[in-house]
Amino acid sequence: MRKGVIGTVYHGESRRPMESVLSQSYRLQSGYLMPIVGLGTWMLNGSTCERIVSMAIQLGYRLIDTAELYGNEAEIGRAIRGFDRSALFITSKVSSAHLSTNDIVHACSRSLKHLGTDYLDLYLIHWPNDAIPIEYTMEGMQHLVEQRAVRSVGVSNFDVGRLQEAIAASEVPICNDQVEYHPYRPRREIPEFCREHNIALTAYCPLAKGAVLHDPVLTRIGRRHGKSAAQVSLRWLIQKGAIVIPETSSLSHLRENIDLDGWELAAEEMQEIDNIGIEAKVVDTVYT
How many domains does the chain have? Predict the structure, then answer.
């Protein structure tokens, strides 16, 4: 493990529990550092979105995740105004309807304008679109990197087969795959592939839209550590090597979701969670 300019940089499953999760980063193949904990903003809109994003940054969050489809980039742009842009890591995603070479360039330009920034730290293909060859999409991504509008590129909701196709089609490294990932959807094949190919894996819906909050296994393990089931789920993902972007509109949950320092799950507890055995997909649409 190497030291980075904003904290410890990790490449695999090992995390040091005594170091703040807010100081830990993953070094992407592009060379840039991506925080391992951030704020997901799906379903956050209007003044609530602006308020929560601003509060999150004040609490120490540096990774803010949005998307063209969320319709909240302008609110996030207002929320980040006045903060040091170089200290933030902003991810956005292009709609599956805009994956042709020219469309992706124009979509990124719109996102930059809404966010009020000159560049995105990470730009993802939100969902695959079989009607548009992946080569055309990656050509657009390469152009954005060359124009310095985007620092790193990646994908979202791509399985291993689609990841392989994207890697083969791209002249720039695929740095990240963002997928639904939580104890009820352990996604064993994708994490393994990402580790082998040094692709950062981001877990969206890491709390399964709240389904894990009353899980008996997570609750029992949480009691041992004086933590909630939500915190156990997030810690499990982090120890698996994932980046987590829990969503919330609550200040108390903003604080709870980063209260992950100074403790870790034992190997036996990790195995208990691995063995929960529930397979539940909580996202069935293309609106994440």
Answer: 1
